[in-house]
Amino acid sequence: MSASQPPNQLLQMLDVAHFDLLRPYLATVELVRGTALGEAGATLRHVYFPHSGSVSITVSLSEGQMIEIAMLGRDSVVGGGAALADGVAPADAIVLFPGAAAMLEIAAFRAVAAASAQFRNLMVRHEQVMLAHAQQSLLCNTLHPVEARLARWLLRARDLSDSKILPLTQETLAQMMGVRRNAISLVANALQRAGIIHYTRGQIEIIDLRALETTSCNCHAVVKARHAALIGIRQ
To answer: Minimal CB count within 10 Å: which of 55, 87, 138, 179?
Structure first.
């Protein structure tokens, strides 16, 4: 790793020689909240390596409902798996928290993957991490109560933001978790009364991290361990 490499943790894992293959193609872009970086079924033009902020990977139903299957940030790549395959996005990718990212065109991404076994293998392992995220989300959303799911979601958001204060509305939380807003309101109020979070309109502050970890199911820890085992990144 070189000090000149971007703060994305995947890029920092590349040896300097392999990163230098990528360097000419990378451009730093702003991640604006609500921007779609990919739409399910559409051909992707770019791959993104977030430096900061977070991107929600969501799936939608024809009735208009949606649910998040993974939250990606500085420990991830957005669009890498699709770029290695047919270039078609398997799900929607929407900027949730603003930040910045290194961006490159799919053709350049594929050229570097063809030239660098280290880069290609890292991207394949990241796809395994994505699968672990999706599988654990399915399990969690099916079996665990809203309180535990909300705590897990907030822990992941904190991992990516390095901040106890998250710019979130209850509407956004409900949408990401695929539950009704009143369910989020009831759970958020309970967590606030317990002194675990402080909620004001459009903002959630984590007050007691240990209590939030206790409230969460073990899905957060399971995915973090899987991430570390496959890629070696620990938050």
So the answer is: 138
pLDDT tens per residue, range 27-55:
999 999 999 999 999 999 999 999 999 99
pLDDT digits (tens, 9 = 90+) for 130-146: 888 888 888 888 888 99
DSSP for residue 180: -
Q: Torsion over CA of 96, 98, 103 and 106, rounded to 10 degrees?
A: 20
Residues 111 and 178 in one domain: no
Residues 168, 99 share a domain: no
Residue 2 lies in a domain: no
Using DSSP, state whether 9 is helix, strand or coil. helix
Please count the structural domains in the chain: 2
The residues, any chain, with a CB within 8 Å of residue 30's CB and separated by 6 or more, are: 98, 99, 100
Q: How far is CA 179 from the centre of its chain?
A: 19
